[in-house]
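User: structure tokens for this one?
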Amino acid sequence: MSNLTNHTQISFNTVVETVYNLPLEERLELKTLLEHNIADSRRTEIAANYKKAQAIQKSGKLKFSSNIKDLKKML
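Assistant:
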């Protein structure tokens, strides 16, 4: 759990209870905000993985094969 701007830490259960008590419109808005935030986080993660894979490929450590036996050995 991260610290809030006023340095007060809130438990996950408290956040959930607070959200459950919000009016429907505010819960829907929060849902939309969270969905966008999660999508942004996933895009960032995918981009980082892509850059890591590019670096591995450039280093020559990445191997390709269509042979099943070779692929199993790589695992």
